[in-house]
Write a structure and sequence with these properties.
The complex is a heterodimer of chains A (about 80) and B (about 400). Chain A is an all-alpha fold and about 80 residues long. Helix content of chain A is about 50%, strand content about 0%. Chain A is globular. Chain B has three domains: about 10-115, Butyryl-Coa Dehydrogenase, subunit A, domain 1; about 120-215, Butyryl-CoA Dehydrogenase, subunit A, domain 2; about 225-380, Butyryl-CoA Dehydrogenase, subunit A, domain 3 (Up-down Bundle), CATH 1.20.140. In chain B, a hairpin with a 2-residue loop joins strand 2 (about 135-140) and strand 3 (about 140-150). The radius of gyration of chain B is 21 Å and the shape is globular. The chains are: A mainly alpha (about 80), B alpha+beta (about 400). Bound molecules: flavin-adenine dinucleotide.
């Protein structure tokens, strides 16, 4: 999942730094993530993991770092899986 | 000092009366409203929103919004100057708490009644708040910063200016900080004037700003956070509040005009009354929109995740674009009602100043820029389809 997220981030994040070199908790906004790129990122993540990110998670915290994105995606993928 | 015993709103009413007396000369001569600024300082209104523990009165946002509205009914430039000052003060209040330099400076704002200006707009960037070309150049505990600031309202009369810039020379254009510069920290070289249609008293000249200071003057949080958590919402809400003041001023004149007509021909409803009803409806929509925005901001600040959500950004964007547009519609209707008496510059029903001041609103951070930001957010966010909150 981490690799997929990094790939999406490299493709859609329009960051000022190389996505491969990002630390798990590095601040993505400081790395140049804009609100426009956030939306592109979200659409790509929904597509790649076949999930829908609900409105309650559409906030700055969800997109603040790779770790935050991973826990959001993991939670939503988990919800999808039959119990 | 004379008015401090009175409520904020009573003091604002006194300042508004001063502003009203000079509004025409401020507009005609395109000069800074010195009289109103002095009255605001005498009434201790510049530090109103600063928390009590830092020397202010801890006023609620809704009170500040009301003051902006009252001032703008008298003189829109004064209302805008007060609003912009409070927007800057909010950055200090929300993001300077805990930082000794900024806490100390906040106290100075309150005790010395300092006027705060803003330099976000930059040559080559325009109204795109979240990008900068200029950068803070740090050496040890000191920095220098140079900015081609194409619009700084009352730059010449401000006691301090809050400036956005990239964090460092090698930082990305959106990796910004906000720096507090006191008058002794900067020089301003005027690069353009402010001979505009309206908002002439804001004296929003362009300057080459050159500054040096201590790194402690840089607000600790990234500007991205400052913009998202307080500044954008504060700007849209307080601007809209003063715009409501402009619209109400125009409406007051139109209503007086219609009533005078009604007195002249008793028993008949004057033709302008229908348009007045239409303007009244728009005024109510505008007022409800602003009040709802103020309530949402205060609730979001009190806790929860709302401040950082897309839905909150969209709501604040909508307050700004709707209020700016609706104000112009109201003033236009009032002009239709008053007719030639509104069009002339020397009658009790003159609406030229209101109309010209109002036209600044959609271009003050261009509505098209804001709508395209909302358009992007709507690719993700699903709008509320329930009426209940
Ligand atoms: C009364 C008044 C007082 C002001 N005071 C200050 C102040 O004290 N300090 C300060 O820093 N600034 C101040 N400003 C400037 C303000 O904050 C904006 O920066 C300014 O209004 C932007 O104007 P612009 O047309 O140059 O730039 P832009 O917003 O960049 O617009 C330029 C053009 O781009 C078009 N456009 C539309 N959408 C987009 C988009 N999404 N992306 C790019 N372009 C788009 C618009 O149609 C517009 O014609 C003030 C403005 C006014 C009217």
């Amino acid at each position: 999942m981490n690799e997929t997220l990094r790939r999406i981030l490299a493709q859609h994040g329009k960051l000022a730094v190389d996505a491969a070199s990002l630390g798990e908790t590095d601040d993505l906004y400081a790395a140049g993530l804009t609100s426009f790129a956030t939306v592109q990122l979200m659409l790509a993540i929904e597509d790649a993991f076949d999930i829908e990110i609900p409105d309650r998670l559409l906030n700055r915290r969800t997109f603040a770092s790779l770790a935050a994105l991973e826990s959001c995606v993991a939670g939503l993928v988990g919800e999808k899986e039959p119990a | 000092m004379t008015y401090v015993a009175n409520s904020l709103i009573e003091r604002a009413a006194h300042v508004a009366a001063v502003a009203a007396r000079h509004a025409d000369s401020v507009d005609r001569e395109g000069r800074f409203p010195h009289e109103a600024r002095r009255a605001l300082a005498d009434a201790r209104l510049f530090g109103a929103m600063i928390p009590k523990e830092h020397g202010g009165e801890g006023a609620a946002l809704s009170d500040i919004a009301e003051i902006c509205c009252q001032l703008a009914q008298a003189c829109a430039s004064t209302g805008m100057i007060y609003a912009m000052h409070q927007i800057k003060a909010s950055s200090l209040i929300e993001h300077g708490a805990g930082a000794p330099w900024h806490e100390d400076f906040m106290r100075r704002v309150a005790t010395e009644q300092l006027l705060l200006g803003s330099a976000t707009t930059e040559g080559g960037i325009g109204g795109d708040l979240r990008n900068s070309i200029c950068a803070v150049v740090t050496e040890g505990e000191r920095f220098t910063l140079e900015k081609n600031a194409t619009v700084i309202s009352y730059g010449a009369d401000a006691d301090a200016i809050l400036v956005t810039a990239r964090r460092a020379l090698e930082a990305a254009s959106s990796d910004q900080v906000m720096v507090v510069l006191r008058k002794q920290d900067y020089t301003l070289e005027k690069t353009s004037g402010w001979d505009t249609l309206g908002m002439r008293g804001t004296c929003s000249d362009g300057y080459l700003l050159k500054s040096a200071g201590a790194t402690a003057q840089v607000l600790p949080q990234p500007f991205a956070e400052i913009a998202a958590q307080s500044m954008l919402a504060m700007a849209h809400l307080l601007w809209s509040s003063l715009w409501f003041g402009i619209a109400s001023s125009a409406f007051g004149k139109a209503q007086a005009f219609v009533r005078a007509e009604a007195r002249r021909a008793p028993g008949k409803t004057p033709p302008g009354a229908l348009r007045l009803a239409e303007a009244g409806e728009k005024l109510q929509v505008m007022r409800s929109t602003i009040l709802d925005g103020l309530r949402r901001y205060e609730e979001a600040k009190a806790g929860g995740d709302d401040l950082g959500s897309m839905s909150f950004v969209l709501a604040m964007n909508n307050v700004k674009t709707a209020a700016s547009q609706t104000m112009i519609e109201v003033v236009n209707l009032c002009l239709m009602i008053c007719g030639i008496a509104g069009y002339k510059n020397d009658t009790p029903f003159s609406l030229g100043r209101e109309l010209r001041d109002a036209l600044s609103a959609p271009i003050m951070i261009n509505n098209d820029r804001i709508l395209s930001n909302s358009a992007t957010l709507l690719l993700a966010h699903r709008v509320e389809q329930r009426l209940a909150v």
